[in-house]
Amino acid sequence: MKIKSLHINHNILLAPMAGITDLSCRLLMRPFGIGLAFTEMVSANGLVLGGDATKCLLASEPEDRPLGIQLFGENPATLAEACRQVEAQGDLIDLNIGCPVKKVVRSGAGSALMQTPQRVAKILAAMRRATDLPLTVKIRAGWDQTSINFLEIAHIAEQEGVDAITLHPRTRIQGFSGTADWSLIGELKRRATIPIIGSGDIFDAEDAQRMSKETSCDAVMIGRGCYGNPWLAKNILALQNGKSAVEPSIEERRKVALHHIAIFLRYNSERKTVLDMRKHLCWYAKGLNGAAQFRARINQACSIIEMRTLIQHFFEHAAMATAEDS
Ligand SMILES: Cc1cc2nc3c(=O)[nH]c(=O)nc-3n(C[C@H](O)[C@H](O)[C@H](O)COP(=O)(O)O)c2cc1C
């Protein structure tokens, strides 16, 4: 797949997810077959004001490529300046037109932009003038069910020189409830002349295959389906190549969980690692024997040593219980 000049090896993209897809998560996921990953959304205002916390979101490594940098904001000049500031640090710049979070929407950014098409045009024109990197947008279906306008926003994006569009076909009001209406991705693909990326509700490899088939989208973007499941990308690739999806063994889950902690610890303090890794570890344990008890314990863990010990015990017992069951 190609987005402007950028070649992407696999048409499986890792979604930008604030609080989830930080550098360590991206480094963990990439070897499983991710063709393009994105930073968490980065505030253009924060960047231009020089905020350290905002700049941290741009942390990357040579093996964390190709990388899309996702910006959010509402002011054309600020977003253009943010493009100039980040363009040496990534391979593509994406504008967030989908975030439903109240604080973001109140400022006129994220999914609020679905309600202001003229502003979108001004922002994209300014961003396009500011950078030669591939420029993409990530949009929702519309603000609410009575204002489904993704085709209008997509048309504006194409006219302003955007190189690809990701559609998460839910409205802002829906948030993450209900189901993503993939037929809208198909509709956009039929109308658009640039690559279309489908996002929403891909939880297993079969889902990705169905989305590709039903919509003819150029790439699929995986989000929550990766929680505790970096094997999702590998299994999508397997199906694409006519092979079967293979579920990871309990031993493999244990190894990857420990590896995730090790990568996270490279970039973060022990305290932050313990707090942030709790959710990931609960996801790795999901569906296994004793997962509820493990969740309760891991959420009380105060050190890395304690976490590693709990992981060791949990996965050993889960493996034994599974062996006894079969
Ligand atoms: C915790 C979380 C954080 C997210 N953060 C972002 C973000 O920073 N930028 C963005 O464009 N979308 C964000 N999204 C939306 C996802 O990129 C994706 O479009 C959405 O979750 C639908 O895909 P899924 O059903 O595969 O998760 C976020 C979603 C979740 C669940």
Task: Note down, in words, how this protein is organized.
The chain is an alpha/beta fold. It folds into 2 domains: 239 residues, Aldolase class I (TIM Barrel); 76 residues, Non-ribosomal Peptide Synthetase Peptidyl Carrier Protein, Chain A, CATH 1.10.1200. Helix 6 packs parallel to helix 7 and helix 9 crosses helix 10. Flavin mononucleotide binds next to loops.
Key words describing this protein structure:
eight-stranded parallel beta barrel, 2 domains, 14 helices, TIM Barrel, Non-ribosomal Peptide Synthetase Peptidyl Carrier Protein, Chain A, binds flavin mononucleotide, alpha/beta, 47% helix, 326 residues
Low-pLDDT sequence parts: none
* Number of H/I helices: 14
The whole-number mean of residue pLDDT values reads 97
**DSSP strand content:** 5-15%
One letter per element, helices H and strands E, the order comes to: EEEHEEHHEHEHHEHEHEHEHHHHH
CATH architecture heading of the largest domain: Alpha-Beta Barrel
The percentage helix is: 40-55%
Distance between the termini: 43 Å
- Ligands and ions found: flavin mononucleotide
